[in-house]
Predict the structure of Toxin.
Amino acid sequence: MNARALTRTPDIVAWDGRGLAVRQIACLRKPGDPAVQMLVARQYYNATGAVVEKWDARLFGSSPRPNLALVYSLNGEPLKTDSVDAGWRLTLPGLAGEPLRRWDQRGSHWQTLFDAQLRVVAVGENGRPNVDVFIYADASAEAGLNQRGQLLEQKDRAGSLLTDSFSLTGPSLRETRTFHDGEPFTSHQVFSPLGALLEQTDAGGHRRRLCYGLAGQLKDAQLLISGTSDWQPVLIDAQYNANDQIIEQLAGNRVHSTWTYDPADNRLHTQSSHHEDRGVLQDLEYFYDRVGNITRIEDHAFAPRYFANQRVDGHRDFIYDSLYRLISATGHDAGPPPDIPGLPQPGDPNNRLNYTQTYQYDHGGNLIELCHVRAGNHYTRQMRIDPNSNRGVRWKTDDPEP
């Protein structure tokens, strides 16, 4: 990132007498533009210190409604949320805070029933009772299958999901999904004493087997297709560093991949893959700014080539503004197809052209323009954002207001 774009662009917070942040000021500067724009976001609180209104930098001072408004109950739980994007939502809680009824701006209404342990047993929607039904096991259930207190069956609009056995750590061992046509689909799982998945059989009879190292990291994976007798390797081996990051992997297709990380911050530095017969498949090197944004990717596996008076080297660069929003990206893509009547012709893989893509945002962080510049293919995509919300649609300069 251009260091000048970040110079003297602090984040400023204003606090009230209760220590609550009432304003946040972000300093926006784009590379190459010395001007700084102050983007002010605002929060309002009630007497108890709960947020009742939130305004972002775009709507503050220009819209009659805040981005988010909240109404609370006497115990401090939110009863109503009113968002300029999602609309309003109203919740009627019970004595224990469980949501008994919910409404939203689209006219939907949900009613939820709970048992004595505050577990959901039924959900009704828009006047239709028991749209979703949940059945739990009581103390008389089979202890050998670890069913007691567990959710045994769930009935919904798609059919039913029956779980008849559980592991000691809680995950289900056998599940049967039945749709309205009555055909059941059963899957099985096997877990280790620590809860790690060891083997899984899906409804089609395909089996997946996983093995782990002493630290609990995945080391080996195999697949047995239904109707066959030979296990196929998916993952042959994997190695990890002390930070639990993968550093080496041999896949079942004999592709060997390696990863290296910066010891100062553990960010990914290089990523490469090669095959013993096909050679190098991928060799990427990553560069970052101080906050972790990728500023450059160098593709060392890409052979530089020349096309249409351009040198294409496969490297990509990224530029950000002072709010760390991506404003420019470079790369390469396929050249235009040949202008030949008839059936489409496959493109030449050697025909690559460099491009530059720029992005523009409004003060609320909404993307309002994407400009793609490349020899033989320029286009601009614009978004029209609602003045009083963050909703947007595709739009062109000469189009009527949406």
